């Protein structure tokens, strides 16, 4: 099965109906057939507890494909079986129904992510105003003087929904410095000019997770 093979890690998102919260579970694909995929029993990313779900329980599942792109699809529990190990059967809508986060169409989301910036002999910590797979906008204090065309090193700290924290490294170029306003500090728009594709995909996945959380809040 293209982009989805045995052993692929999956993240399952389960929305609690009574509160505006989402539980995240990690599992692995152990087999597939027709319109079903089989996973080992999911483990809650924060508590470490194994999840037990009734038939019909609905999830949003996501994974990183063999092409390093992020895919997601809607699914639900259809059965529980015992093979070599106990497994859960999930409905699989088919490859044509997978939603792919485009690698070259970077969605920008508002998010405060910790970032360390270094250039020449200077360095300072700050936070992002927004972020995408193509770059970031960061807050700049009066004492920090990045200018257009400056090339800088960035280290971003991405807190994922799984509870994991990833450190992403990139080289960026300052595209624009936006002067401070009464209600906003000075901001700096930075384009990534050198970043490992796996790190870019982590940023894209982070942006995707932020989008999903915003949509769930809007639907409440």
UniProtKB/TrEMBL annotation:
SUPFAM superfamilies according to UniProt: PilZ domain-like
Annotated protein name in UniProt: Pilus assembly protein PilZ
Stored Pfam families: PilZ, PilZNR
Domain of life: Bacteria
Any one GO molecular-function label of the UniProt entry: cyclic-di-GMP binding
Domain Type III secretion system flagellar brake protein YcgR PilZN span(s) in chain numbering: 5-93
InterPro entries per the UniProt record, alphabetical: PilZ_domain, T3SS_YcgR_PilZN
Domain PilZ: 102-209
């Amino acid at each position: 099965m293209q982009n989805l093979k045995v052993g692929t890690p999956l993240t399952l998102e389960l929305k609690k109906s009574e509160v505006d919260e989402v539980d995240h579970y990690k599992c692995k694909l152990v087999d597939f057939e027709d319109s079903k995929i089989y996973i080992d029993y999911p483990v809650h990313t924060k508590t470490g507890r194994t999840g037990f779900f009734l038939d019909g329980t609905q999830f949003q599942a996501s994974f990183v494909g063999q092409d390093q792109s992020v895919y997601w699809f809607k699914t639900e529990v259809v059965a529980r079986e015992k093979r070599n190990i106990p497994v859960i059967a999930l409905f699989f809508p088919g490859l044509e129904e997978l939603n792919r986060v485009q690698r070259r169409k970077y969605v920008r989301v508002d998010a405060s992510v910790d970032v360390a910036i270094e250039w020449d002999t200077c360095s300072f910590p700050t936070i992002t105003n927004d972020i995408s797979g193509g770059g970031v906008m960061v807050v700049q204090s009066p004492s920090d003087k990045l200018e257009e065309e400056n090339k800088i090193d960035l280290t971003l700290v991405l807190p994922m929904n799984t509870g994991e924290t990833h450190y992403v490294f990139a080289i960026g170029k300052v595209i624009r410095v936006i002067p401070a306003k009464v209600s906003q500090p000075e901001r700096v728009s930075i384009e990534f000019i050198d970043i490992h594709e796996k790190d870019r995909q982590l940023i894209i996945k982070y942006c995707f997770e932020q989008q999903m959380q915003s949509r769930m809040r809007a639907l409440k």
